[in-house]
Amino acid sequence: LQLAKFFLDERGHYHNGRQPYGNFGDPAYTQDHLPVIEQDEALGHSVRAVYMYSGMADVAALTGEQAYIDAIGRIWDNVVSKKLYITGGIGARRHGEAFGGNYELPNATAYNETCAAIANVFWNQRMFQLHGHAKYIDVLERSLYNGFLPGIDFGGNRFFYVNPLEFDGQFQFNRNNSNERLGWFNCSCCPTNVVRVFPSLGGYLYAQQGHHLYVNLFMSSQTSITIDGAAVQVIQQTHYPWDGTIKLTINPTRPTEFALHVRIPGWAQGQPVPSDLYAYSQSTDGDVQPITLTVNGAPIALALHQGYAVVQRLWQPGDQLELTLPMPVRRVVSHPAVAEDAGKVAVERGPLVYCLEAVDNEGSVLGAALADSTPLIAAKAPQLLNGVVTIEAKQPDGNLTFIPYYAWAHRGRGEMTVWVAQAPA
Fold it and tell me: Are residues 54 and 194 located together in one domain of the fold?
């Protein structure tokens, strides 16, 4: 801990008047422009920056130093309110693999390195451990499903280094002058990083602090914890992210009292990200059903604390908690300062961001437009892309089919876009 803090505290000193040489001579590129406790904006190489921010969050948590807590909070706010792609990706600039300026979020030239999405997962896990708030897991989840997963093909052996939100079918956006997933790169940090993420996923699902058990991510799984000397088994059953029903079976070896904190995602509460960078627009997709929570079949009121539904009780073997998160299709709009997204909407369902791909839409999507009055209908497609839910928009001037963004580029090269022009009313 002391060594980690030493290395962080050395930042922002001892420049000795050196002159910049390319990226590497610029102190901001290496997060060395100011002492870390004075920094308030995410700058420089996005992956290395967020690895450093992860370390800052750890030091903040373990030392309790307010200057560290405040600094890492300011930087996180800057990213989430001004530099985060709707996919949870980070790092707008190809040059330097770097963060861009505030609200600089291009789509076709977005860099969004797969390693940067992984780093964002690491960082937000640590921010959750520091503060215990669900908003950090909301960002983690968005990065995991929409920033990380697109970087891997279904076979698990071909990768995107770069993850744009728009593709004209030609631009060689990926590393090694390619526009398709590759098995290896001249700098292969992303494939090797992916390899360590998958076996670590179980560590993100649950967390424990004393008599408090947190359910952070929703995947069919099983875990065991110990509370007051009693072993407590938790079994989670769900078809998330396609379905919003989550069933938890609690099996303590003896009746045990503890608080179960179940995350209520921001997207289920009408907020795609914990800032004003993105917002759900009004749409005609029907009324949103309420979130429901039951214990042993009996409805209970949602008592939210820091983004979690908290159920404190004496848990008996076989107790069952069921959470239902409605998953309406939602249109998303960007903050007006994001020039690239002006006059455009994106489409989401649950935690997943969707896109249009040419193969589903008569060979072209970059000129597509979506009217605000067009209903968006979710449809199961079990034979498509290993089984997905598509979003169908039926319009007089041409129907549109959206697929989950993570699944794009599995059926040959062709146009793709996440953001779609808003058609005149």
Answer: yes
Buried b (16+ CB within 10 A) or exposed e, 208-241: eeeebbbbbbbeebeeeeebeeeebebebbbebb
- pLDDT-above-90 percentage for the chain: 88
The answer on 135 and 50 residing in a single domain is: yes
pTM: 0.96
Q: What token pair was written down for 241?
A: 């992210």
Cα separation, 311 vs 304, in Å, equals 9
- Assess whether 208 and 174 both reside in one domain: no
Distance (Å, rounded) from C-alpha 96 to C-alpha 36?
A: 21
Q: Which residue has the tokens 């065991």?
A: 224
The range of the structural domain enclosing residue 158 comes to 2-202
Do residues 146 and 215 both lie within one domain? no
pLDDT of residue 258: 98
Strand pairing category for 369-371 and 420-423: parallel
176 with 58, same domain: the answer is yes
Q: Which residues of 98-119 are buried (b: 16+ CB within 10 A; e: fewer)?
A: bbbeebebbbebbbbbbbbbbb
Distance CA 159, CA 352 (A): 20
* Domain shared by 359 and 227, yes or no: no
Q: pLDDT for 168-210, tens place per residue? A: 999 998 888 899 999 988 888 888 888 999 999 999 999 999 9
Residue 16 confidence (pLDDT): 62
Statement to judge: residues 198 and 211 lie in one domain: no
Q: CA dist 12 to 29, 30, 33, 66, 104, Å? A: 12, 10, 5, 19, 25
Catalytic residues: 97, 189
Give the CATH number for residue 241: 2.60.420
Alpha-carbon gap, residue 238 to 362, rounded angstroms: 35
Tokens of residue 150, six digits: 């697109």
